[in-house]
Design goal:
- This protein is 51% helix and 9% strand.
- By secondary structure, it is mainly alpha-helical.
- A 3-stranded parallel sheet has the order 1-2-3.
- Strand 2, helix 6 and strand 3 form a beta-alpha-beta unit.
- The protein is elongated, with a radius of gyration of 17 Å.
Length: 136
């Protein structure tokens, strides 16, 4: 019998994709106001699941932005932390993890979301106490 249950976060535990995509665009705008926002949205969508560093590196190269991809990743995470209160956990998720915990399961979240904003969301939604592992 399975003993370990692993969840992704975005679009599995929460519906934050639209916010994530908007914050991706907002991270770039201070450095390239005339950037093609539609291109950024398509890039973000096509690269779901890949690291933010890889995504921002592609943006820096494509648009010749004079900032490091590492800096954009940090600024993007700062925006995510500021917006964490907008992210809601799907209704019923807490009941699901409680059920699994009651049956002795190990519960983990594995995501490419940065840990800082993730922990804010999990704490605010009172889910973190049910998780054994957070891989971010």
């Amino acid at each position: 019998m399975k003993q370990h249950i692993i969840f992704d976060f975005d679009d599995t535990v929460s519906s934050a994709y639209e916010l994530n995509q908007q914050l991706f665009v907002e991270t770039v705008l201070p450095y390239k106001q005339s950037v093609d926002e539609n291109y950024l949205r398509k890039l973000h969508y096509a690269n779901r699941g890949t690291s933010m560093l890889m995504q921002f590196d592609e943006v820096v190269k494509k648009f010749g932005i004079k900032v490091s991809a590492e800096r954009l990743v940090k600024e993007n995470e700062d925006l995510h932390k500021e917006s964490a209160n907008k992210v809601k956990i799907f209704s019923g998720f807490t009941n699901v993890v409680k059920h699994f915990k009651k049956h002795g399961k190990i519960i983990s979240i594995c995501t490419n979301r940065a840990r800082g904003s993730l922990e804010i969301i999990l704490k605010r939604n009172k889910v973190i106490k049910y998780l054994d592992n957070i891989i971010a």
